[in-house]
Design goal:
Blueprint: H1 5-25, H2 29-53, H3 58-87, H4 101-115, E1 123-124, H5 128-144, H6 146-154, H7 156-174, E2 179-180, H8 194-210, H9 214-229
Helix pairs in contact: 1-2, 1-3, 2-3, 2-5, 3-4, 3-5, 3-7, 4-7, 5-9, 6-7, 8-9
Length: about 230
Amino acid sequence: MKRHIPNTITCCNLICGCIAVQQAFAGHTDACFLFIVLGAAFDFCDGFAARLLHVSSAIGKELDSLADCITFGFAPATLIYHMLQQCHVGTVTEMPYIAFLLAAFSALRLAKFNLDERQALGFIGLPTPACALFWASLCYIVQHDTRLSFWMLQYPVHAAAAIIALLLLSCWILVSEVPMFALKFKTYGWKGNGLRYSFIAASAAVIAACGWGGFAFVILLYVILSALTQEKA
């Protein structure tokens, strides 16, 4: 019975991703953000449960990637699509579809992760949950910051260009060879974990100060720290 627990948690992640996509297409971006965060929580718990119960399996690994492709690939891509639609750039009605590049590159990143033996303790390239949380948080900031919303209405071409530039950068960093540290602990002492504990503390402070919008700054901090430390997997 216990061997089914991690896969059940993974399926909860997948369901959260499906609901997030539906909410994004309906224009309920805050609800989409919430379900992406819930999906990320389930994504963390399924691996933890598999290790705790000693029931890791090949099917669990594949199921996890399929769920992540929806929750952290397709769902944030729909949010980007929604933001680009709001820009109303002339008659270029096909432009928002470029958002789904994120879903394609997320799938490619997940496939590489499954085959790359260098990523046992760390990551190479930005993990898909981090990318999804960045975009969900950024969309939340845009929706709730009146100055940004006004700027998008006044300068739609500039806004669309900025979103697309960030999108292309996200696609690149997902499949890049940049080493990223993981929040995986061999031991729980400070030695060897100083970077992780410092990042967790800083993240908690940023989210406490900024609320939901703080996730975007946390992910930026994660990328910067990873680039500076160049921690290998």
